[in-house]
Write a structure and sequence with these properties.
Layout lengths: L5 E3 L2 E3 L2 E7 L5 H12 L4 E3 L8 E8 L6 H5 L3 E9 L1 E3 L8 E4 L6 H7 L5 E5 L8 E2 L2 E2 H6 L9 E15 L2 E8 L5 H11 L4 E11 L2 E2 L4 E2 H5 L23 E3 L2 H8 L4 E2 L5 E2 L2 E2 L4 E7 L2 E9 L2 E7 L5
Parallel strand pairs: 3-16, 5-14, 17-21
Antiparallel strand pairs: 1-2, 3-5, 4-5, 6-13, 6-14, 7-8, 9-12, 10-11, 12-13, 14-15, 18-23, 19-20, 21-22, 22-23
């Protein structure tokens, strides 16, 4: 499932996931461009943007795996980060300009006590320096132009936020597990305010996205050492691994052919995944001989193709 390859000009295409340990200073788009350049690929994309200040896991989808990016983005993410107390920055991280100071430094017991209100379903205002659009403009563009940015609070899910260590009187390290749309910079800012001081992120590292873990990631330096895409053996993960929680449904060759042609397939019985009955409506991954054929919508006793995987692309 992840090793298909074809040629067009001097570029090739593989289909699957490459996990990259992003270095500080790189944008997520720059990492993807470098992966495409080094491996001479035609098509790639990333799941879950990391700010330039951040390091850690950046899942890069190759080829047809790019069609599964929206599903991976929905997965749980794990971060470790450091908050500096006593200062507010306009970007809510170390790259911004100082806008306020506070002499208050929170005690460990107060930090632990405050964490409870930052877990579960919470409302969070994104940083002014974010990619969210406001009247057709990115918020960071307005902020850089010193124009007013009024971002509304959003409901997000924080599964766990824990204090790892009080590093010194001025900073502390945390671990976070969260759902889609959570801004670590906003947590640092709001946690500082809840503790009667100010706070901003000085270090941020992502450890996990969905089923993907940083331990399986490759650095850009290691990537640069590769002589050929074949050297990725053991590093390229199957396309289907970017579909955490999506039921897998086996189809026969005739059904697979119909799905590839954009046609619906009527089922004689409710589909099962891992021995568990799938209830409609649902999104599933139809597979033939362990190879994903299409993402399908299951409803009213039939499956209809939503995204068909074209391995010759």
């Amino acid at each position: 499932m992840g090793g298909s390859e074809s040629s067009r000009g001097n570029r090739t295409q593989r289909h699957g996931w490459l996990l990259v340990d992003k270095d500080k200073g790189w944008t997520s788009s720059q990492v993807v461009s470098r992966v495409r350049s080094v491996l001479r690929l035609r098509k790639a994309g990333h799941a879950g943007t990391l700010d330039p200040i951040a390091t850690g896991l950046l899942p890069v989808a190759l080829g047809e795996a790019t069609k599964t990016i929206p599903f991976l983005v929905e997965g749980v993410k794990t971060y470790e980060f450091v908050v500096q107390w006593g200062e507010a920055r306009d970007t809510d991280d170390a790259e911004g300009a100082m806008i306020r100071r506070s002499k208050v430094r929170p005690k460990e017991r107060d930090i632990r006590s405050a964490l409870a209100s930052f877990q579960g379903e919470i409302f969070q205002r994104p940083p002014d320096y974010s990619a969210i659009k406001v009247n057709g403009k990115r918020a960071y563009q307005l902020a850089r132009a010193k124009r007013p940015v009024a971002l509304a609070e959003r409901q997000v899910t924080v599964k766990k936020l824990e204090l790892l260590e009080v590093l010194n009187g001025d900073s502390a390290a945390f671990r976070l597990k969260c759902g889609k749309g959570v801004y670590v910079r906003s947590i640092a800012r709001d946690l500082g305010k809840a503790l009667g001081t100010e706070g901003y992120v000085t270090q941020l590292r992502r450890l996990g996205v969905g089923a993907f873990d940083l331990e399986a990631a490759i650095s850009l330096a290691q990537l640069e050492e590769l002589k050929d895409i074949k050297d990725l053996a053991g590093r390229l993960l199957p396309l289907a691994e970017g579909l955490p929680g999506v039921p897998v449904f086996c189809v026969d060759p005739d059904q697979a052919a119909r799905l590839r042609q954009g046609q619906a397939v009527v089922l004689t019985a409710a589909p099962t995944s891992g021995g568990v009955r799938v209830e409609a409506p649902a999104v599933m991954c139809a597979i033939l001989a362990d190879r994903p054929v299409a993402l399908v919508d299951f409803a009213k006793g039939e499956i209809r193709p939503r995204r068909v995987f074209n391995y010759a692309a």
